[in-house]
Amino acid sequence: MKKFGIVIIFLFSLFSSLKGEHLVIAYEDKEQPPYYLGNGSGVPGSDPGIAVEMVLQLERKIDGLTIELVRLPWPRCLYSLKNNQVDGIFNASYSKERLEIGWYPTVDGTLEGPVDTSRNITVISYSLYTKAESGLDWNGSVFTGISQLSLGAPLGYSIVSDLKLSGYRIFEFQSTEGGFLMLERNRLDGIVVQDITGDSILRKNVRLYKDIVKVTPPVATKEYYLMLSDNLVGRNRSLAEQIWSELASIRNRHLSELEDKYSR
């Protein structure tokens, strides 16, 4: 009888491993070249972006893992993770406030432990963009040149809370493209956005945004991660750790070739 029980346990374990895990992972429905391309709810069938390709490579690295990608407005990505409607989201910068909605990779494996920066997807800076003649500047610590500053940043992005904590009132716009339009129409004095996206928009719209300049140094530089849901980490902690570690390995081995691919 004891041997029979052992066989049942073995078969159950074997079935569980063969069954595998199907994960739903969300990312923003607005493009962020070169990390994800295209706008809207559809995932491009080819050349979807560096971060998208990195996440999809997890299927080849982890036996039994399948991934379904969905695209949502970024605030909806955050909401869906909090409510365990998706298993993960990317690209998510570290914010202590976000520990209420999901998990980052940490050094000690605890929710509030030091974030493990070696297992990020990438590093992105936020920069100030303004009209050349506005007089607005960033000195590395504070904004200068305009006393009654009208400043904007993308809705739901971590930079918003950072700037608010520094005492600035921030108008939150739905998309980075929309922020540039507001800046061009003088509805904002400046916008703080991810420079990978901001620079791309300026390159593609040289004539429209000819009066807009990027100010250095960056306002902030952040590591970005694949966040995982409470549900996933709770039911399969070893898989969560494997996902974060494999993603770091994919970045180390393939990021440079992916960057070459998307720079052509």
Automatic annotation (TrEMBL):
It comes from the Bacteria. SUPFAM superfamilies: Periplasmic binding protein-like II. PANTHER family: AMINO ACID ABC TRANSPORTER SUBSTRATE-BINDING PAAT FAMILY PROTEIN, MEMBRANE-BOUND LYTIC MUREIN TRANSGLYCOSYLASE F. This is Polar amino acid transport system substrate-binding protein. It comes from Spirochaeta isovalerica. The lineage of its organism: Bacteria, Pseudomonadati, Spirochaetota, Spirochaetia, Spirochaetales.
